[in-house]
Amino acid sequence: MVNNTIFSGRFTTQKLRSTVITDVWPQVLFFTLWAMAIVLVDRFTETKLAVNSQLLTVLGVVLGLVVSFRTSSAYERYSEGRRLWGSICVISRNIAQIIWTQVPAERPNADKPELAVSMLKGSIEKKSMINLLQAVAVAVKHMLRNEPGIYYEDLYPLIAFLPRYAYPVAGTDVNDLLPLWQASHDKTVAPLKRMDSQTLSRATTIEEVDKRTWTSSYRPRGFDEFDPEKVLPVVYSDHSLRPSRITPKTGFFDYFPILRPIKRILRLFQPKKVETHEQEDLIEPYSHGMWAYVRRKKMQPMDSNVPLQIILHLAGYNAFLLKAGLLPSAAASMLTSSIGNLQDTVYGLDRIKTTPLPFAYQAHLRMTLWLYLFFLPFQLLMAMKYVTIPATTFASFLLLGFLEIGQEIENPFDYGLNDLDLDGFCLSLQRELHEITAYHNLPPSEFCYSSWNQPFAPCDRRTAEEIIGDEKDEYHDKEIGLDRIRKTLIHNWHQVDQETRV
């Protein structure tokens, strides 16, 4: 049974912000007061303001269709984003399975002993490449939220081992940073003093982590403290690491959007602060939804494509496997196509993020809706009299609400309850990748012939160990053994078919 998200759990301000009430109530209040003024003027003065309602019917149908199209187009973006995230999880699982089960861990090389790889080194190599799949998902999450760079608590530990410098320039001592590290070093993170060996790379304390807000559906119930980064590698960094979730703060002006112009006016009279490197390093949370996205985009221009850089390392590993002949042709073809599909999926998510609906369409639709609601009381007045006031309130709440819902879900990659649970997707993929690498790729002979296996049940409930040990059984006969097995399987089918039908 699915819980009702409206009534399940305690009511919080975050739930209130996830509705459109806080966004539309000033407009609904305005049109309600306007309808009240129209009704009072018509009833208590000699001026008659009622008009024919034919135009109401025509425009109402057209406007309803347009608003419906606006909402459905926004939901298509939401649904497409969810589908593409599902593709990332499926492709990552497929790549991990190929690497873990198909690539040999121990690779002896008789011709060149220096190129031989032991079982331990091979296992470390494969696990490191699978960790990069988790890093791709986390990097995509930060890219979609317009959080540039690589120095995050949930990303940096996964890629800290990747090469940072290109080969030295001939005849000089200059080492150039590779694109994955260069852009983050120059634009997003101010250099800090190198930490000693006793200091973890995580810049926030445990107390600060406990206060962080997590809306993931994968959060264990009953736990107020949730810190999934504690299962990541513990590495050291000479840069401070940002939190994995830079959740936008909700302020007074978010609940009273009509007063936002006052906030901007007050900013003009505030003295400018001299920001230090450490302050510039942080992304300032601005508000909820699209405003937070626009604010982060304005402050931090996107640098190198971090998911692309990580996928390049996976493609390089695939090229190494092909060159060394370590994969069967079918597995090699599947791995190559999966890496390409992963890159296509990342591009699809980026396309959704960077392709909003045209501004002219949104502006014209909103102005048309305002004009419709402005003249609505004049057309309802003749038939509904005082009921015009609540009717206008309901109509404005209904139409403006759907318009704001389309605006809210147009970018489904932020932190709100209406957005996709990107953190939950990444944590789910992390668990699945670890589950794959926990699998032991043993030959069937080590587990199929045990006393725990009854392969021919329900007709023959002897264990595999008993069947193999009974050499006098007809199964062992070279002439009729195969026929005896086939007979048992046919009887199994008849019994299962009869017992499982209702």
TrEMBL record:
GO function terms (MF aspect):
chloride channel activity
Bilayer topology: Multi-pass membrane protein
Q: Name the principal localization, coarsely classed.
A: membrane
Q: Keyword annotations for this protein?
A: Cell membrane, Ion transport, Membrane, Transmembrane, Transmembrane helix, Transport
Q: Which residues cross the membrane?
A: 20-41, 53-73, 369-387
Residues folding into a coiled coil are: none
Q: Where in the cell is it found?
A: Cell membrane
Signal peptide (from-to): none
One GO cellular component term: plasma membrane
The lineage's top-level taxon is Eukaryota
Q: What is this protein called?
A: UPF0187-domain-containing protein
Q: Which organism is it from?
A: Thelephora terrestris
